[in-house]
Amino acid sequence: MTSIRERNKELILRAASEEFADKGFAATKTSDIAAKAGLPKPNVYYYFKSKENLYREVLESIIEPLLAASAPFNQPGHPSEVLTAYIRSKIRISRELPHASKVFASEIMHGAPHLSPEQTEQLNAQAKHNIACIQRWIDQGLMAKVDPHHLLFSIWAATQTYADFDWQISTVTGKASLDDADYEAAAQTIIRLVLKGCEVATAPSTASELVSSV
Length: 214
Fold this sequence. Notes:
Blueprint lengths: L1 H26 L2 H8 L3 H8 L2 H19 L9 H18 L1 H12 L7 H23 L8 H17 L1 H8 L6 H18 L9 H6 L2
Helix pairs in contact: 1-2, 1-3, 1-4, 1-6, 2-3, 4-5, 4-6, 4-7, 5-8, 5-10, 6-8, 8-10
């Protein structure tokens, strides 16, 4: 029963992400979500109680990965390694959760009316922590004196565009969907632009390299 419950909830969440991304919160009907999920409409209310709760669950499904993407900032690390891991995580989110990413972007553009105070605080606190890390690296001479706020905003824009503006990317590339090589090229390009543009110092990859550099 537990596996069936989890499967049905996942089907509904995935369908809801697509419907909310395509139509927005107000225009989305629970009947359309149920139809896309291949389940009876009462199942939506059974598992999520209301359209509002379901929408908040979709937001939660993207907020958790967004916070998790910042994990490299939450432990000691060299800026080249931390920024590389962060960018790759953000690209992976855009690839694996494109619809939820669009829902989140729309929510933010409308002033985040459905985000809870706790979610807002979590996101803001993590962003401020990341900015403080970047500023510390700058102060330590590990990277150029760039504005850490705008560097973070630029990384967000560069990585999230692959989900939020996928139609434009498909039109320009002539591809219905991007493949492994495309996402790898995207990650490498953004990483190169950030590390080279910010003049990030190279981190010794092994202990022997660290010793030989002293």
